[in-house]
Amino acid sequence: MQLTREDLERRFRDNSAPYMQQWMELLRFPSVGADPAHDADCEACADWLCRHLAGIGFDARLLPTGSKPVVYGQRAGRAGAPTVLFYGHYDVQPADPLDAWTHPPFEPAWEGDRLYARGAQDNKGQLFAALKAFETLIAADALDATVKIVVEGEEESGSAGISRALPEWREFLAADVLMVADTGMAPNGAPTIVMGLRGVVFMNVALRGPDRDLHSGVHGGLAPNPAEAAAELAAGLHKDDGGIAVDGFLDGIAAPPPSAVAAAMQAPFDTALYRERTGCEPAGGERGVPPQVRVGFRPTLEINGIHAGYGGAGSKTVIPAGAEIKLSARLVPGQDPERCLEALARHLAARVPPGIRLEILSRGAAGPGFRLDPSSPRVAAARGVLEGLSEQSPVLHWEGASIPVVAALRSAAGAEPLLVGFGSEADNIHAPDESFSREQFRLGFLYTGLMLQRLHARHGEQAV
Amino acid sequence: MQLTREDLERRFRDNSAPYMQQWMELLRFPSVGADPAHDADCEACADWLCRHLAGIGFDARLLPTGSKPVVYGQRAGRAGAPTVLFYGHYDVQPADPLDAWTHPPFEPAWEGDRLYARGAQDNKGQLFAALKAFETLIAADALDATVKIVVEGEEESGSAGISRALPEWREFLAADVLMVADTGMAPNGAPTIVMGLRGVVFMNVALRGPDRDLHSGVHGGLAPNPAEAAAELAAGLHKDDGGIAVDGFLDGIAAPPPSAVAAAMQAPFDTALYRERTGCEPAGGERGVPPQVRVGFRPTLEINGIHAGYGGAGSKTVIPAGAEIKLSARLVPGQDPERCLEALARHLAARVPPGIRLEILSRGAAGPGFRLDPSSPRVAAARGVLEGLSEQSPVLHWEGASIPVVAALRSAAGAEPLLVGFGSEADNIHAPDESFSREQFRLGFLYTGLMLQRLHARHGEQAV
Fold first, then answer.
1. Distance between alpha carbon B260 and the CA centroid of its chain, in Å?
2. Residue A88: closest CA among A448, A335, A427
3. What are the tens digits of pLDDT across the range B266-315?
4. Do B281 and A362 touch (CB under 8 A)?
5. Which terminus of chain B has fewer Cβ atoms in its 10 Å neighbourhood, N or C?
6. Cβ–Cβ below 8 Å for B212 and A316
7. CATH architecture observed for domain A207-253+299-365
8. What's B286's DSSP letter?
9. Which tens digits make up the pLDDT trace of B105-160?
């Protein structure tokens, strides 16, 4: 059968009490992935989720990763129906500072429509709303797709376990669509489809001069200054117009499809709001390129940290022994992460001033960037679903950030990512008094339930 | 009468026991000027010195400065004889780390020819050797010059008290020569006349962007990056050839007299030794300019510190909220400290990238640079004295460092500085196990005794 929006709304209303009860149960696990003191809590949380998945109709088990287990559930669909891989995470951010919370972070508490707890939104709330949709469709025999659910326990600390394990899981994770409910709505509350994520690479380098800090009078004009060298190298990464000056770094980038740029430009960039939210003008990146394009379609190369010499109060007349620069870059489709790192290393090495030694302390890549095609039928389907859920038109958003595990899952499963979530700034994720509203939960539930049904052809609808 | 070198040597030998005893007494005061816990020790040390000066023939008193008192002694000379202002300091560096000392730092202990204690050289040893020379000349009625002695208690922490007081002391400090025994010998042990000191100015600036660290993915391409701005500003202070790129900063610098440059070049620069002592090549400063000239005759503009963003382990993908740069410059004669600061501030302000705000946190000048003329008769006299004291020929040294209080005293007293000291690297000043040898003490004693007599015309010698 097929559940209409009205069917789903009724079933949500009828089951709201147990849904909320179970959600609160999930939130009581202090599954802080980054804190070894909470290892047992993470295991207990994974166990609970595993049993929960089994209880709602999945063939569920824990997959060892060498660190935190991944909760895995699978349910075979009808022959010919598409395969959906759903990703979520059960770990949460640390709750510190504890005394900044109105309610204890692991004792979920309602205030009006909002449930307050660490993880209320990120990601237990969004994850659980989707699980309840799966449950509802299964109970109504309305789920045709084959569904594979992956819930990891290390998203907030780098997804090390799942990243290590993924190469071996390629075969059984193969899917057509990768659904992720770990994103938010536009600042104005419009439902949002994330049309792309940037990739990310990083490199930390040291510059070394004298074997200790030297007196800047005795040695000024004699000793080479690593702080100055660091400034020169860092400044040399960009051209005067804000563009990246590293030879080879931009290789492979094709101009974005005009339809995508046009769609991104439909969401006007609110400079006044940006100023209010960040305290600064949106003056970064390439001059003369619109902000939506700079963040959604262009790469960056940022200095995340630069440190050399004296940093205390007042002055100290030293020539520092060394300097460190922490760099990271956001990549767009076409850029190969490893080749970007090579280009960066070559660029730096070629510009080290006399008397200074460059050392690459660490470098790494956490996946390439990707973009969806605005003309994809699945994007159109998601758009259609979201149009029915909100008074505001859905927004297509080319995101500047990276979710490395999504890039990795996309590549491992060969699936088209579909990132739709209902977070808002009011949720205070990663901060004290995190919350998620019953209304946001309901939106996640309805979207997942409707979208899953749109992913396979039925009743004359077009399969996506 | 006139004391010959042999006279002085004999008197030193004869009085060596009480001289060493008194020196050890002076070293027992833990007169750590920077540590308020030692305020009473500093006062006691100043009292002791004041009584000592009175005991050897000076009209002595303590001059209040608002912080540590200056010990002042004066003795009128014969009519027509020159006036000598002698400068020293009774404060010492902190003795930490205490457990790195072989003997307790304030219990002077002999090992062979060396006396170990904090301040053994810097400056109590060099100061006391000179005082013993004054005492000897006075006792022998061989001191014609009018002598003014100034011993401050804040040299190691910035000379704030005396600097504040100097403008009011101009009249009674007026002198022809300013003798300072707070410097060292050449690395090869040759007696050294410091022919110039550079001045110093400093400026600490902040660059501000967003009101907090921002996510470098979400905001990369939107938010301006203060770390990048800091790198650009810092890198823009120098030209590709290592020269200073700040408009107006070099105004007023005349080419150094060829005779001075020639004299400086006579002390060959030992690159291998420099490498061994610093761990780096002498590759700083202006390309194509000899090291002796770079450090002795050219100004610098150094980045003493640059700090922005993440500095911990690994990576953190932030666009930092702000950055700080700590700058200082060494100035040569002709450069006006205040005008240099103005030029620097203008240069920075004109180059702040869009979206970034520049704030000058602090700025200050600690005196201009000065140089002696190698043809000065007093330099010739000092050279003559030193030639008789060592097997090695005396070296004329144009020093890259600054002694701000010397510049201030020079200007207040209208005197020609004559900086000759007998420190060596082996003395470990500012470090554990500081020491000064009886032989170095004796050299200081002989030099002061002979030089004072050369400063006035007698027995047909030329007055200098």
1. 21
2. A448
3. 888 999 999 999 999 999 999 999 999 999 999 999 999 999 999 998 88
4. no
5. N
6. no
7. 2-Layer Sandwich (3.30)
8. S
9. 999 999 999 999 999 999 999 999 999 999 999 999 999 999 999 999 999 888 99
What are B179's strand-pairing partners?
B86, B418
CB of B326 within 8 Å of a chain A CB? The answer is: yes
- CATH 3.40.50.300 is the classification of domain B199-261+295-365: no
Of the partner residues B236, B283, B307, the one whose CB lies closest to the CB of residue A355: B283
Q: List phi, psi (to 5°) of A70.
A: -95, 130
| Tokens of residue A111, six digits | 């205030």
Q: Tell me the count of A-B CB pairs closer than 8 A.
A: 292
The residues in B 384-423 lying below 8 A from A, measured between CB atoms, are 399-402
Nearest to A446 by CA among A84, A86, A136: A136
Between chains, do B217 and A324 touch, taking CB under 8 Å as contact?
no
Looking from the CA of A85 toward its CB, the CA atoms found within 13 Å total: 25
Burial of A130 (0-12, 13-18, 19+ CB in 10 A): buried
Q: Which two tokens stand for residue A242?
A: 């804000």
Query: What is the Cα–Cα distance from A53 to A49, expressed in whole angstroms?
Result: 6
Question: Are B219 and A314 an interchain contact pair (Cβ–Cβ within 8 Å)?
Answer: no
Q: How far apart are CA A194 and CA B54, in angstroms?
A: 86
Contact A218, B201 (CB under 8 A): no
Residue B192's Cβ-count burial label (10 Å; 0-12, 13-18, 19+) is buried
The Cα of B258 is separated from the nearest Cα of chain A by a number of Å equal to 20
Choose, out of A197, A205, A222, the residue to mutate when testing the contact with B (most B CBs < 10 Å): A222
Residue A384 sits at the vertex; the CA angle it makes with A379 and A386, to the nearest 5 degrees, is 95
The confidence band for B463, taking pLDDT boundaries of 50, 70 and 90, is: low
CATH number of A5-182+403-454: 3.40.630.10
Encoding tokens for residue A390?
A: 């909100």
Mean pLDDT of A112-137: 98
User: Exposed, middle or buried: residue B32 (CB in 10 Å: 0-12, 13-18, 19+)?
Assistant: buried
Give the whole-angstrom CA distance, residue A8 versus residue A13. 9
Residue A204 tokens read as 């930390």
Q: Where are the domains of chain B?
A: 5-197+369-454, 199-261+295-365
Helix ranges (DSSP H) in A81-159: 124-139
